[in-house]
Design a protein that fits this description.
The protein contains 11 helices and 2 strands, in the order ααααβααααβααα. The protein is mostly helical and about 300 residues long. It starts with a helix and ends in an 8-residue tail after the last helix. About 45% of the residues are buried. One of its GO terms (molecular function) is transmembrane transporter activity. It comes from Enterococcus ureasiticus. This is Branched-chain amino acid ABC transporter permease.
Length: about 300
């Protein structure tokens, strides 16, 4: 079960990396996540059941997620709709898109090929195929992100998130950077959705509910545990945070709690992690000796 949780954590970490690109770099939450995640899974599973190779099907899921992010970006930058509302509009619309793609609320991959089947010939122990799959895709995504953010385009993207007015004053097209960020971010998120759908063996129209909480938990747990880090270390910290989050959920299940209420446990874990920095400050102020002259 622990190996399974680690494998799941790695696949969910891809979601965290996607959310990181908007939430931490561009400094706004993107609600498109809860639509692009199940969209990636729906497109991928539908493609596989139609006879398309799992790798190509996964790439089609990524492309679908990128299209969703592009629509949000255009509504935000060109339509001047607030980013949260733009994300909610696209997320709501994607519900119908997913139903149109699958022609049913859920679609099974029973007796169909999956991307992790490529590890069958290695005769790995149970769940180790998911760990291998997670390691491979995380290595690819993190390497691509590090390469991208070390280019001039990537630096312009970071500058847009750091100080939009300054970035615009030096000639950076900040609207284009936001569109790019939302497009790439949702492509990564859809990749996570496609891989998790294959791991679970089915796609479901409601699979995106609450996934933004899981992604944020990966980011926050990593930041709380490791503090100040370099950019590359922050990406790795998200992976570690995601694995720890899945292990915490496993612990909740092992303690006998009803799995029907996992969403509230997820919210509680995230809220607790968000409050840790404030609790540390409060404890330091209370217990550290005051300097002379302070009250």
């Amino acid at each position: 079960m622990i190996v399974s949780a680690i494998g799941q954590g790695m696949l969910w970490a891809i979601l965290g990396l996607g959310i990181f690109m908007t939430y931490r770099i561009l400094n706004f939450p993107d609600m498109t996540t809860e639509g692009s995640f199940p969209l990636g899974g729906a497109v991928c599973v539908t493609a596989i059941t139609s006879g398309i190779h799992p790798i190509l099907a996964t790439l089609l899921g990524v492309l679908a997620g990128m299209c969703a992010g592009l629509v949000t970006g255009l509504l935000f930058t060109k339509g001047k709709i607030p980013v949260i509302l733009a994300g909610i509009l696209v997320m709501s619309g994607l519900n119908s898109v997913i139903l149109y793609v699958m022609q049913t609320p859920n679609l099974s991959l029973l007796n169909k090929p999956k991307i992790q089947d490529f590890f069958l010939q290695l005769n790995l122990p149970n769940y180790y195929d998911i760990v291998f799959l997670g390691v491979i895709f995380l290595a690819i995504i993190i390497s691509l992100l590090l390469f991208f953010f070390n280019t001039n385009l990537g630096q312009a993207y970071i500058a847009t998130g750091d100080n939009e007015h300054m970035a615009r004053s030096i000639g950076i097209k900040t609207d284009s950077m936001k569109i790019l960020g939302l497009t790439l971010s949702n492509g990564v998120i859809a990749l996570s959705g496609a891989l998790i759908a294959q791991n679970d063996g089915y796609a479901d129209v409601n699979k995106g509910t609450g996934v933004i909480v899981i992604g944020l938990a990966s980011i926050i747990i990593g930041e709380v545990l490791f503090g100040e880090l370099t950019f590359a270390e922050r990406l790795v910290a998200i992976v570690v945070g995601s694995i720890i989050y899945q292990l915490l959920i496993l612990l909740v299940i092992k303690l006998g709690f009803d799995t029907t209420y996992l969403k509230i446990f997820s919210a509680v874990i995230l809220a607790a992690c968000l409050m840790i920095p404030q609790l540390k400050k409060a404890l330091n102020l209370h217990f550290l000796p005051q300097k002379e002259g302070e009250k």
